[in-house]
Amino acid sequence: MGLEQFINEAISPWLKQDGPDSDIVMSSRIRLARNIEQIPFPIVASQDELEGVLHFVQNHFNHQSFEHYKNLEFVQINELTTTEKQVLVEKHLISPHLANKSNDGAALISKSEQLSIMINEEDHVRMQLYFPGLQLEKALEEAFQIDDWLEEKLDYAFDEHRGYLTSCPTNVGTGMRASVMMHLPALSMTQKMNQMIPAINQLGLVVRGIYGEGSEALGNIFQISNQITLGRSEQDIIENLKSVVQKLIEQERHARAVLMDQSELALEDKVYRSYGVLERSRIIESKETATCLSDVQLGIDLGIITNISKSILNELMVLTQPAFLQQYAGKTLAPQERDVFRASLIRERLTLEQKEEF
To answer: Is there a contact between 341 and 98 (Cβ–Cβ < 8 Å)?
Structure first.
């Protein structure tokens, strides 16, 4: 199916799987930044040089497979509509920066959408690999294998003392960004998350929103990632990140238990009110949708709501984003029209989910 699947299916196949601590950790990601030796970095390269990188990658990797990462599809950014580009951003298959490239950007995306390799983003190659739940070590192990496979045909820019050379100085060294997407509603409700963020930053990590740098933590979803790559090994980075994430999991579980013990009725009321908004609204904005979905997901995790699966919420988190809504509608929608269509789509999807229960 290729591009049609990437753009028309809201939930990536790998997201339908459960992983360790998946009630709190939505996904683990490893991203490796690489550049090709003797070719200027994308920020200074000529159009001809960047197009040369594109053609080389397309000729050697399009429709190729590596182990269970099947049928890598070469997607050229300038052949997509504005809406299609934004859909791929909303599904985390490409970055906002790559979506804004004019003629020289592309991505290789596996059939499962678990592997995405961005070409001529900030670096020549930015490979990202996702796993459900907390699986940083497994993601790193497989990312190394894919990196070795790519290097069979690509000569990377590497310095014996500095490590992998990248456009941004903060990526020099391992060239690795490890990140974990977490749903932390109880810490947010109890105002503890705001207190924890400065402490997390002091440990060499950064807390961002769902779409990375500069984005808002919609729906109580936070992305925790490393800031430093130079002078530290990939394993050290992973261990530091994992230790902080495990502490956040512990604190979130404790906060949920306290809420259930001390404010169970109020929490149930909050969850069911949000469920009611999703089920009955005729107009709903994306920010309110994310908040309500977060409350309902918390209700599912705590056993308050039992007639709806978690997968439908993962689907709706993507399906109700502005670009995906318009792709689904098959036309451009004004903001007010999107809010109406979003509400209608949520009602329809929840009704279908409830029918499947009986």
So the answer is: no
